[in-house]
């Protein structure tokens, strides 16, 4: 979409900025072949950035969170390799995503010291004295202009850092808006020409945040992440342009802006998603050499075969029951001897896997190792949890937690009536008064109230929760080792009607 014609001969009052942005890269470092064309990867992404920096004045590159996870290169080196790769991309400013905290906040602070680019975040702080862990904002000066970037993180960081007792954060959109106001007011006297929010809260939440922003604060653009939303034109809410660039390295968002430096606003703009492929992007040999050296270190370890399925299993959407999700849920149920296992859909990171599965395939698909808990739930509590999981937010594109149900469950849910029409386990109706043994991953157990609408008090009233395994990964790999030629039918586990 284009508003007003860009004028290359504008006076000194009007200056051009090329604002490039990525989000949710998730270790998507390597080139793929799509329709016989090389696509994506940090080599061609780096090549495109270099081309823009050489051709255009005032080029800025930002990343809106989630550089980490998704690749064995990332997990094997606990993010150190990712920071080195992003250093070569040379972003001008980066904000945190929820997966930046996966290796722990202390490790994240160590990784920040390795970064040659500024990392900003306005809302992670030490509880005892309200000291922020990161700079909340960054002011970039370019061609006589001052550009203010403010970093806002998804409230999911609270979920990920539940074990970090000394770390706090604000979590609500209203509180985020208040923090933005505070920061903008602090820099009013600096003649800021452009203000950009780098967020990681999801596209729909970005719209909500924009609706709460007072125009006098001067927010011009929200560059977001987390929901992996691919768009063809910006959303406009409350006069603020809102964009996101999907996920991975297959594309990059590009703003061509004309800034009115007298009135400190955008005079005109053009935005487009740019495909990263061999037609538009030269390859960066320096980046390829570095990536190749790291890959050589991981190939020997991760090339071994760890599973053999009957066919390639699919996981096309996290908000549905899938074959690949089913294999993980069933493996945990059988291994831990529970009545039902809730496998977090977001734990399954690949859209397909198999029939031959290497350790690299498995690790990239299931990168989160941790404990799993056994909890005792009454039938009434189980139904209460399911109703919370299947609430309207789950079907409206909001970033809620969703679960793969293990075999034996048969649930029919009515969207229009917001009720369970059927809830059976192994052919028997789930009874409100019976106790069921349910398996839950540690991350989800640590967030029972938010994800299941169950308090710890009501759950513990049925019996003390138990750690069933200290390593999901070891449990799954052992199951796959002992069960060959797996095939899964998830038909009937969840039916959504109306």
Description of the structure:
The chain is of the alpha/beta class and 498 residues long. It folds into 2 domains: 2-295, Metallo-dependent phosphatases (Purple Acid Phosphatase, chain A, domain 2, 4-Layer Sandwich), CATH 3.60.21.10; 303-497, Alpha-Beta Complex (5'-nucleotidase,  domain 2), CATH 3.90.780.10. The protein is 29% helix and 29% strand. The chain has 16 helices and 31 strands. It has a 7-stranded mixed β-sheet with strand order 1-18-17-2-5-6-7, covered by helices on one side. Strands 10-11-13-14-16-15 form a 6-stranded mixed β-sheet, with helices on one face. A 5-stranded mixed β-sheet has the order 25-21-29-24-30. A hairpin with a 2-residue loop joins strand 15 (235-237) and strand 16.
Shape: globular
DSSP helical segment count: 16
Low-pLDDT segments, ≥5 res: 1-10
Please give the alpha-carbon distance between the first and last residues: 36 Å
**Whole-angstrom Rg:** 24 Å
Helical amount: 25-40%
Average pLDDT score: 90
Q: What portion of the residues fall into strands of 2 or more residues?
A: 25-35%
With strands numbered from the N-terminus, the spatial order across the biggest sheet is 1-18-17-2-5-6-7
Described by strand count, sense and barrel closure, the largest sheet is: 7 strands, mixed
The overall number of domains is: 2
Regarding quaternary structure, how should these chains be classified? single chain
Number of strands: 31
The CATH homologous superfamily of the largest domain is called Metallo-dependent phosphatases
Indicate the structural class. Answer: alpha/beta
Just name the CATH architecture of the largest domain.
4-Layer Sandwich
């Amino acid at each position: 979409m284009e508003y007003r014609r860009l004028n290359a001969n504008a006076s000194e009052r009007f200056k051009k900025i090329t604002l490039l942005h990525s989000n949710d890269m998730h270790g998507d470092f390597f080139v793929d072949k799509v329709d016989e064309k090389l696509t994506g990867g940090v080599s061609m992404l780096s090549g495109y950035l270099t081309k823009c920096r050489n051709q255009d004045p005032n080029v800025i590159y930002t990343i809106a969170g989630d550089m980490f996870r998704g690749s064995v290169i990332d997990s094997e080196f606990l993010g150190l390799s990712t920071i080195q790769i992003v250093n070569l991309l040379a972003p001008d400013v980066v904000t945190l995503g929820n997966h930046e905290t996966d290796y722990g906040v202390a490790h994240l602070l160590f990784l920040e010291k390795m970064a040659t680019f500024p990392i900003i975040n306005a809302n992670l702080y030490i509880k005892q004295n309200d000291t922020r862990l990161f700079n909340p904002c960054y002011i970039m000066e370019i061609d006589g202009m001052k550009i203010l970037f403010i970093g806002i993180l998804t409230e999911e960081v609270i979920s990920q850092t539940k074990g970090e007792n000394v770390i706090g954060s604000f979590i609500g959109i209203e509180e985020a808006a208040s923090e933005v106001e505070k920061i903008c007011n602090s820099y009013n006297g600096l003649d800021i020409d452009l203000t950009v929010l780098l967020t990681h809260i999801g596209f729909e939440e970005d719209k909500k945040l924009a609706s709460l922003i007072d125009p006098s604060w001067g927010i011009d653009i929200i560059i977001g992440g987390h929901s992996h939303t691919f768009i063809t034109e910006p959303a406009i809410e409350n006069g603020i342009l809102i964009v996101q660039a999907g996920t991975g390295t297959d594309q990059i968002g590009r703003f061509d802006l004309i800034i009115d430096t007298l009135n400190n606003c955008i005079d005109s703009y053009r935005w487009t998603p740019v495909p990263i492929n061999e037609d538009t992007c030269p390859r960066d040999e320096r980046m390829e050499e570095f990536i190749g050296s790291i890959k050589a270190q991981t190939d020997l370890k991760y090339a071994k075969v760890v599973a053999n399925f009957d066919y390639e299993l699919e996981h096309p959407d996290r908000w549905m029951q899938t074959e690949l999700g089913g294999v993980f849920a069933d493996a945990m149920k059988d291994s831990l001897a529970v009545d039902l296992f809730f496998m977090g859909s977001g734990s399954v990171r690949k859209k397909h896997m198999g029939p031959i599965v290497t350790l690299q395939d498995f690790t990239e698909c299931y990168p989160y190792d941790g404990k799993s808990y056994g909890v005792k739930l009454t039938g009434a509590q189980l139904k209460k949890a399911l109703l919370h999981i299947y609430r309207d937010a789950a079907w409206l594109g909001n970033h809620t937690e969703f679960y793969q149900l293990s075999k034996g469950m048969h649930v029919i849910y009515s969207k229009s009536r917001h009720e369970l029409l059927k809830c059976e386990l192994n052919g028997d109706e789930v009874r409100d008064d019976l106790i069921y043994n349910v398996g839950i991953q540690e991350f989800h157990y640590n967030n029972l109230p938010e994800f299941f609408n169950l308090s710890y008090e009501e759950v513990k009233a049925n019996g003390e929760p138990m750690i069933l395994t200290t390593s999901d990964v070891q449990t799954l790999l052992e199951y796959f080792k002992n069960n060959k030629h797996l095939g899964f039918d998830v038909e009937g586990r969840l039916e959504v009607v109306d």
